[in-house]
Amino acid sequence: MSERQVNVKRQTSETTIDLSLNIDGNGTYEIATGIKMLDHMLSQLARHGAFNLSIQASGDDQHHITEDVAICLGKAFLDALGERRGIVRMADATVPMDDALSTVAIDISGRGYAMLDLKLFENDMLGFPSDLIRHFLETFAIESRINLHASILYGTNDHHKTEAVFKALGKALDKATRIDSKRAEALPTTKDWLEK
Asked: In what order do the strands lie in the sheet with 15-22?
């Protein structure tokens, strides 16, 4: 198996992003986007996904930074996974966080799609609009070409609900990107081909 790590850089008139991802890491991270809530959620994603993630980002507003980080993270997963030979491909995770319970299911299918049932109410997000959580997840799913379903089953606090989603996404990504010893170098599909 070749190394599954990449660097992605994005420079626009709105943002500057420098991101590195190692899927076969141990959950270490160094994240500085200038947005405390986004940094916190991305840290959860890396730690619970057991991949190494470094992100340095700056930009003109929260929306553009969040969107462009999602674009770069999606591209990083797409590129690092390559042909996706031998991966488990599909996985899910359900995570509690105090009052909240969230579940995520993914399929690394080559077809980016997001179905989200987030039930967020704009409370306690450190000035971070909860709609940017939806936008981040949709953008990540499209750019990584992952089929992503995320649901907040219940909860009161938006911070807890969102954190449970990001932890569950990390856990699901960890499971789905693992190499399955029974598959060897086979593609996990009956088509013998996955969209890239």
From this structure: 5-11, 15-22, 52-59, 29-32
Please tell me whether the overall predicted TM-score, pTM, comes out greater than 0.90 for this model.
yes
Tens of pLDDT, residue by residue over 109-146, are 999 999 999 999 987 788 899 999 999 999 999 999 99
Q: Kindly give the pairing relationship between strand 52-59 and strand 15-22.
A: antiparallel
Q: What is the DSSP string of 9-65?
A: EEE-SSEEEEEEEETTS-S-EEEE-S-HHHHHHHHHHHHHHT-EEEEEEEESSHHHH
Other beta carbons within 10 angstroms of residue 182's beta carbon come to 8
Is residue 119 a contact partner of residue 101, using CB atoms and an 8 Å limit?
no
Residue type, 33: T
- d(CA 69, CA 139) in angstroms, rounded, equals 9
151 in Cβ contact with 120 (< 8 Å): no
pLDDT digits (tens, 9 = 90+) for 97-109: 999 999 999 999 9
